[in-house]
Write a structure and sequence with these properties.
Elements: H1 12-21, E1 25-27, H2 31-38, E2 51-53, H3 54-58, H4 63-72, E3 77-86, E4 89-98
Parallel strand pairs: 1-2
Antiparallel strand pairs: 1-4, 3-4
Length: 102
């Protein structure tokens, strides 16, 4: 017997695809840490951003694997590499979005 509330559980791939189809961008960056750095360092995102943190908001710990799976299914996903200057130097993050043609 399935517990109530678990019948319509979405897979990570479906949650990710839903966000990408809504025109939002997804990244593996820890946005809480990023927001702390934001006032002191270079800010690659505009103040009002549509970037979603895969771990915190979607429950996806291995975002590149989910992106790889969607690309293998034929989805045209853009990858933009951003550089953030943090307290330990520069760090690179990938920001994924669905091409508008899809």
């Amino acid at each position: 017997m399935i517990k109530k509330g678990y019948e319509e559980k979405q897979t990570q791939k479906n949650r990710l695809l839903e966000v990408l189809k809504a025109g939002k961008k997804v990244t593996q960056i820890d946005l809480e840490y990023y927001l702390q750095l934001r006032s002191n360092y270079f800010n690659p995102f505009p103040p009002k951003t549509d970037v979603i943190d895969a771990i915190a908001e979607l429950g996806i710990a291995n975002l590149p694997a989910r992106i790889f799976g969607l690309k293998a299914e034929g989805y045209d996903i853009k990858t933009k590499d951003i550089k953030i200057k943090g307290r330990f130097g520069n760090t690179h993050y990938a920001v994924y979005s669905l091409n508008s043609d899809n």
